[in-house]
Amino acid sequence: MAEKPKLSKRYGLSKLDPAWREKIFASIHSDRLKLAVSVLSATGCRPSELERGVVVRACNGQLHFGIQGSKCDSETGRGQPVRVLVVDNTSAWGQYLAQQLVSQPDQCMRICYDAGGISQRLREKSREIWPRRKTLISAYSYRHFLGKSLKESSMGADIIASVLGHATDYSQAVYGRAGGGKRSAGQHGIVQASATNPIRHSPKTDRLARFIKPNKPATTPVAA
Predict the structure, then answer these.
(1) Looking at the predicted structure, is the pLDDT value of residue 96 above 60?
(2) Quick check: helix, strand or coil at residue 99?
(3) Residue 195: beta bridge partners?
(4) pTM of the full structure
């Protein structure tokens, strides 16, 4: 049975505390979990990709993430085998990662965490911080938030696809709805993104665009 859209993390973002990422991060005391959540916060990678291991390197005051794609099919051309994201280190998790990398050989380390375990820990943290809320945070919440922030920041479809590890510019449609208020604009931290294969344009993207209503411009009352 297909998943109902209303249950998607994409639709639940608007119900979360605007600073939910920061509050979750501040509540973590385990270094291993803090490293994993830092990677999720910075890259929006899939839990299965985090389980494989994400390589993080400090370079010229920025963080470089190497992610091995987990949803790839060479026959159908699905997914991106590898993507590299350059992220600024001004966020709380960016500064934490930068500090951890100082003591590492070549300022590089590989961070991994069990896919099922990371979401379970995040749900526990969510209940702990917001006991009355029904909307719980999982590892995919970070992925949807990043997609939403990139869209609200008017990033190009090719860049968004590269960040999320998609082969075409259509798959991003299911991640993070851009809101009229654009509350998450500029919060993604992405400086640059590249992927193994060029992003393909999908005709479905054009069909979808016809159903997206542009934001109405503000009107100014006409003086009498």
Answers:
(1) yes
(2) helix
(3) 83
(4) 0.82
